[in-house]
Design a protein that fits this description.
Chains A, B: Keywords: DNA-binding, Transcription, Transcription regulation. 2 copies of one chain form a homodimer. With 106 residues, chain A is of the alpha+beta class. Chain A has helices spanning 3-19, 22-30, 38-44, 49-62, 87-105, and strands at residues 36-37, 65-70, 73-78. Chain A binds a DNA duplex (30 and 30 nucleotides) through residues 21, 37-39, 42, 47-57, 69, 71-74.
DNA sequence: TGCTCATATGGTAAAATCACCAAATGTTCA
DNA sequence: TGAACATTTGGTGATTTTACCATATGAGCA
């Protein structure tokens, strides 16, 4: 594996890792139909302002979202919306796991 | 958010998390064109047998791969191949980040 | 049965992640 | 300018992840 290949796979893994936290995944899904300000997330998740802010920073640094400050507020949106096209496949993985679990019990 | 919704998003995040490690993502990509035995991974990655085995176990428990023992060897394959279908999008995220970095320097 | 090979599991120390609190920053408005 | 607001940053302790080593399991073969 060349250093370039290694760097690429690390960057890609980093994208998955960023989405690999329930709160961050939820945030990404919230951005499906457009931008949201930070305050909207804090309102809906029962978590500290700073916690949300740090999650957003992880998503931003992974390249999943971009932010824009307008007035007092900061708005976030998906940088590369195709990310969301992934979800049906992920749900398929989850469903397969659940089905297997049911089969095992039955 | 209902308990069901919460459980679903946690399960989905877990799939992303499983892919969110360079070695595990690499393993998943290796499985693109069919099954591989554990020994093949160990050969190509410079890591301990037990390390690879544990990564495989994470992927398995997340529902990404399935294993099958045949004779002395254990073979792994992708359970839900669509996982790989969206790599171009992930690469797009990464590329966008790199481009931005270049622009910033230039 | 006993040996060897392929893989898994348990233990452990170092590093990373997470959520909260407190304090800093930067923006608007009086 | 100064108060109020939205968000970020720094610090901390608890928990999780990771990679290695040593040991266990389980299959095939002598």
């Amino acid at each position: 594996m060349t250093p370039q290949e290694k760097a690429l796979i690390e960057a890609k893994a980093n994208v998955f890792k960023a989405l690999g936290h329930p709160t961050r995944l939820w945030i990404a899904e919230q951005l499906a139909d457009g931008e949201r300000c930070v305050c909207e997330f804090v309102e809906k998740v029962d978590a500290d302002f700073s916690t949300i802010s740090k999650h957003l920073s992880v998503l931003k640094q992974a390249g999943v979202v971009v932010d824009e400050k307008r007035g007092k507020m900061v708005y976030y949106r998906l940088k590369v919306p195709c990310i969301l096209k992934y979800m049906p496949c992920i749900e398929e993985v989850v469903q397969a796991g659940i089905q297997e679990h049911i089969d095992m019990l039955g």
